[in-house]
Amino acid sequence: MSVFTPVSESELTGWLKRYAVGELVRLEPIAAGIENTNYFVDTTQGRFVLTLFERLSAADLPFYLDFMSHLARHGIPAPAPLADLSNTLLSTLNGKPAALVTRLPGRSLEHPDADACASLGALLARMHLAARSFPGYAENPRGQRWWARAAVAVRPFLDAPRSTELDAELAFHATQRFPDLPRAAVHADLFRDNALFEGDRISGVIDFYFAGVDCLMYDVAVCANDWCLRDPKTDARFDDARLAAFLAAYAAVRQPGPEELAAWAGMLRAAALRFWLSRLYDLYLPRPGMLVHAHDPEHFRRLLALRAAPGGAPWPVS
Amino acid sequence: MSVFTPVSESELTGWLKRYAVGELVRLEPIAAGIENTNYFVDTTQGRFVLTLFERLSAADLPFYLDFMSHLARHGIPAPAPLADLSNTLLSTLNGKPAALVTRLPGRSLEHPDADACASLGALLARMHLAARSFPGYAENPRGQRWWARAAVAVRPFLDAPRSTELDAELAFHATQRFPDLPRAAVHADLFRDNALFEGDRISGVIDFYFAGVDCLMYDVAVCANDWCLRDPKTDARFDDARLAAFLAAYAAVRQPGPEELAAWAGMLRAAALRFWLSRLYDLYLPRPGMLVHAHDPEHFRRLLALRAAPGGAPWPVS
To answer: Could you give the 3-state DSSP secondary structure of residue A149?
Structure first.
């Protein structure tokens, strides 16, 4: 359970006076999440999520909060940060940077079908269109610069074959630059557990705290590598029907250009490498207070090998 | 039925491509409303209201849209205008200024009880607190300057007693200036039909197109003169229990200062005069295309006489 910084009802009641959201009705810690302290907060007016930020600094947070606010203003079901009576989205509670955001309905799907993948594709494309007018900038916090640092940190823990594999992959990406591909602030971590569904409709996209400016196609690749696998834990090959449904729905809203399609295979590899590296990092160099079991990095190593193989990265949409 | 400017499904489907709100599922004209053309618009993403503005000019609209957006950002259940892909809230459709806003759930109450009046009081106070940080400015479009113009326009239609009554009331208000009372952008028309309830909770406050900067207590008075009457059509005397519930709930969130309480009687008279004048105006000088029957002005004349009488404007909250 991930409450690193406890908040009592009386502390919250006092803090909520900074906002115009009504009186506290219910406060409930949220067990999921490994980064921040989260609570469900019900008031006489509505349902919210309180986040106390444990990793990100107050200086970094306006990018994320403004991005979520921008998307919500465009009709994307992102959590909308609440402004306080001084008209700011970021506050402080119990010594931590804190924000109150709208609580979105719905549940995540462990095994999305082709319809759900199509819903994701359409929504992702709309997010990308909406994000194009967002003026904020932050580098992708798990982009190439981070890969280089992470690789140095984890290499001592790797056996020779894995070390060689990592070096080869980094060498490949060092040749890949896409200065002309469309970019915007992207979620960059839109795994199945970060999308909420009500029926076929995506009712929420959550956990924007790995967002950054990157190629739109990179964000597409992150999703494909999680949503469209034959089995999300044991078989990293693409399920052709779900991949096709996801990409066709995306392309119906925003058709990628030829240079984006040419970069697709590299994007899938980049998206695989990013999560292989972060899972290696979390396994071998866990941060203090990290209370959950690290995910197995091997899944993403296998996935990366599949994507890097000839024919491993199809774009099955005409 | 108030569709002054028809919109077809194919016109709307094309127009919605400017937004990131998904594909059109359903388009339904809204019969209520005498000012603008309104449609319910359901998309694959959510439920919205489309408004084509028939009275207000594009130059005036940013104040209203920004104010609604500001309130929604603060957790007030106001319709949130959607930004289009160029990141603006105001658009054009079929030659009219147009906006797409979130559709709020709930139903208005014809006969609110004391609990509903208390919900209104608390919400109104929260709106006022949130509005204090809104930087936009527009004069109350039905404020003292409008009263003077409206009085000139309707006086030829009044009999001698009513003309005398109007002149006396205008003379009274000419002596009333409240330069030191707290002001903000206020709704200024929050009648029962502009609040939506789900159970005891106000789930929506709608129709902000008479908003302007004015004394907060004027906004309180507008509500009291509609929500807290013994009978909203036939008996303009206050229902003591509902008035007390409304004002106590307001004061629990934002306690008016002594100078605001001293001004309360004058505020109730101002709020009565504004609606007497506008109903006279709509009765005698209807705008072309105004398709609904004008409300009877006499209700507000009687209400005004009651408020102006000694003891007619109590503040029953200690």
So the answer is: helix
* Chain A / chain B CB contacts < 8 angstroms: 91
Q: Look at domain B114-308 and name its CATH class.
A: alpha beta
Taking the C-alpha atoms of residue A252 and residue A250, their distance in angstroms, rounded to an integer, is 5
Confidence of residue B286 (pLDDT cuts 50, 70, 90): confident
Contact A30/A101 with Cβ under 8 angstroms? no
User: Distance, in angstroms, between B123 CA and closest chain A CA?
Assistant: 8
The whole-angstrom separation of Cα B83 and Cα A133 is 10
Domain map (residue ranges) of chain A: 9-102, 114-308
What is the model's pLDDT at position A1? 44
Instruction: List all residues of chain B from 89 to 128 with a beta carbon under 8 Å from chain A.
Output: 122-123, 126-127
Chain length of chain A: 318
The secondary structure element, H or E, covering residue B298 is helix B298-308
pLDDT tens per residue, range A13-72: 999 999 999 999 999 999 877 789 999 999 999 999 999 999 899 999 999 999 999 999
Q: How many angstroms separate the CA of residue B83 from the nearest CA in chain A?
A: 5
Whether B12 and B48 have beta carbons less than 8 Å apart is answered as no
Provide, as residue numbers in chain A, all residues whose Cβ is less than 8 Å from the Cβ of B182.
none
Give contacts of A 162-221 with B, CB under 8 A. 201
Which of A41, A43, A44 should we substitute to test contact with B (largest number of B Cβ atoms within 10 Å)? A44
**Could you give the ipTM of this predicted complex?**
0.91
Count CB neighbours of B181 within 10 A. 18
Q: Touching check for B19 and chain A: CB below 8 Å? A: yes
Contact B45 A20 (CB under 8 A): no
Tell me the fold of B9-102.
Phosphorylase Kinase; domain 1 (3.30.200)
Cα of A21 vs its chain's centroid, Å: 27
B149 touches chain A (CB under 8 A): no
Give the pLDDT confidence of A257-300 residue by residue, as tens digits. Answer: 999 999 999 999 999 999 999 999 999 998 766 655 668 899 99
Residue B245 one-letter amino acid: A
Which of B216, B137, B135, B64 minimizes the C-alpha distance to A87? B135
Question: If we measure between CA atoms, which residue out of B171, B259, B277, B166 comes closest to residue B215?
Answer: B259
Residue B291: exposed, middle, or buried by beta-carbon count in 10 A (0-12, 13-18, 19+)? exposed
